[in-house]
Amino acid sequence: GQQLNQSPQSMFIQEGEDVSMNCTSSSIFNTWLWYKQDPGEGPVLLIALYKAGELTSNGRLTAQFGITRKDSFLNISASIPSDVGIYFCAGRDSGGSNYKLTFGKGTLLTVNP
Amino acid sequence: NAGVTQTPKFQVLKTGQSMTLQCAQDMNHEYMSWYRQDPGMGLRLIHYSVGAGITDQGEVPNGYNVSRSTTEDFPLRLLSAAPSQTSVYFCASTARGEQYFGPGTRLTVT
Fold it and tell me: How many CB pairs under 8 A join A and B?
């Protein structure tokens, strides 16, 4: 099956710093999604990407659908303490079901005030 | 519009007991799915459904049953709970390629 590698596994940063994380897949994807999970809650969809090269922002968050269609990036600018949580990437491969997603194992972000 | 709801929020079972985790969505989504989340393992798909009356197995289906009698509801049944099923369970529904998660059920099997 598909493999989706997410890095880094964890990050410790100071408030105000920018953050970057990425996911790479072993196959071509036609959709990339980025989620955030707060402690004790379910993942919440942050950004959805549908076209190679697409760059989409949601406030201080910016995500890109890689041109090779095998990777995606999430950037957070000027981090604040409430950015703490686990960030997941998820993708749908071009040959698979229209609904099933493959998930990365997450990036745990800690922001020191 | 409540989105995806799950009950209970927390549950403790003894080994061998059975129970049903409830999931409901009010968005009229055809596709629903169940995941379990374990430390270091990410989200793993247990079962999914592409519509009422249609279900299929995901990555880790053993020990779990599902049914989909209505578009809104997608319950997950543990037939005989085992300590290996201690986990956090998430239900999700999907539309337009975007998947929306419920708040989760934290299950402990002793």
Answer: 47
